[in-house]
Design brief:
Keywords: Lyase. With 311 residues, this protein is α/β, with parallel strands linked by helices. It contains 12 helices and 8 strands.
Length: 311
């Protein structure tokens, strides 16, 4: 295991990694190594793998464990790595989680199981998850109702982190969700509720405001990780204006990446353009850029790079 697991104070930028594929759709080991190096070179605090952006639902069990093992070996303990282990069955979830922890992961990320959006059902599910994982596996609770279809209230999040000591981090992706960040931050770190680390997703689209509301950083996959790193660094240094200036320079391409059902193809195309992966392919069924899309994206990249130089 790494020397430092994720905990209730964890902060910074945990970049969510893509899963690179070859032209034939196989997991690309060489690009996996290049992508890890790319993220490290751009100063990320940690990594998260096998999430939605990582197309984890399109991988076989063997591919998922192989990819996790390769990433963890390449990282070599230099930064913490969180592994997404959400699965339909608790046995499969626990098996992948324990494999990842034994291979050096710093914690696991779990989303609620699909089903009726009933608060006591969500609480019951996470109690079962924590019991299956055991007390030594730190858990990041993924709150992404736009994808899972399961909203979780701030009150339930606070109850879970009280009742389940393993739940030390919230991956916040609810939208609109700024009020929820305020509620979770105000309700944790109190006499009866331990502090909860909050890292935010949604591509970083609301990152300056989320940090101002009390978030500890970002856990998302924007293809310019240096922006996320600098925004969080400036905010932590007490310079929110600098943080917003940097953020604003990247906003057009950030917004372009956030197109529902299409953004992953854009993100992979940017990573390919930047030399981080050899092929921008998403695994079928998945979106693909047209020549018009690619020309549009290249223009956005050029304009972004020009703005950043001026900044």
């Amino acid at each position: 295991m790494p020397s430092q697991l994720i905990d209730r104070q964890t902060n910074g930028v945990f970049i969510i990694s893509a899963t690179p594929f070859t032209e034939t759709g196989a997991v690309d080991d060489a690009s996996t190594d290049r992508l890890v190096d790319f993220y490290l070179e751009h100063g990320v605090t940690g990594m998260t793998i096998l999430g939605i952006m990582g197309e984890a639902n399109k991988l076989t069990a063997e591919e998922a464990t192989g990819f996790a093992a390769r990433v963890l070996k390449r990282v070599g303990g230099r930064i913490p790595v969180v592994v997404g282990v959400s699965a339909a069955g608790l046995d499969n979830l626990a098996s992948l989680a324990h494999f990842a922890m034994d291979a050096g992961a710093a914690g696991v990320m779990v989303a609620p199981s699909p089903g009726p959006a009933v608060e006591d059902r969500v609480r019951g599910y996470f109690h079962q998850v924590c019991a299956a994982l055991g007390p030594d596996v730190p858990v990041c609770l993924q709150d992404f109702p736009q994808t899972t279809g399961v909203p979780i209230s701030a009150a339930t999040i606070l109850t879970l982190t009280r009742d389940c000591p393993q739940i030390v981090m919230l991956k916040h992706e609810d939208c609109p969700g700024l009020a929820k960040i305020s509620a979770v931050r105000a309700g944790s770190g109190t006499a009866d509720t331990p502090r909860l680390s909050i890292l935010c997703g949604n591509g970083g689209l609301y990152l300056p405001q989320e940090l101002a509301r009390g978030a500890d950083g970002a856990m998302t996959g924007f293809a310019f990780p240096e922006m996320l790193v600098e925004v969080v660094r400036a905010h932590q240094a007490g310079d929110p204006d600098r943080a917003e200036d940097v953020f604003d320079a990247y906003l057009p391409i950030l917004r372009y990446e956030q197109q529902p059902g299409y953004g992953l193809a854009v993100r992979k195309a940017v990573l390919h353009h930047r030399g981080a992966i050899a092929c921008p392919r998403t695994r079928a069924p998945g979106p693909k850029l047209s020549p018009t899309d690619e020309a549009e994206l290249l223009r956005l990249i050029a304009r972004t790079e020009k703005k950043v130089k001026e900044l």
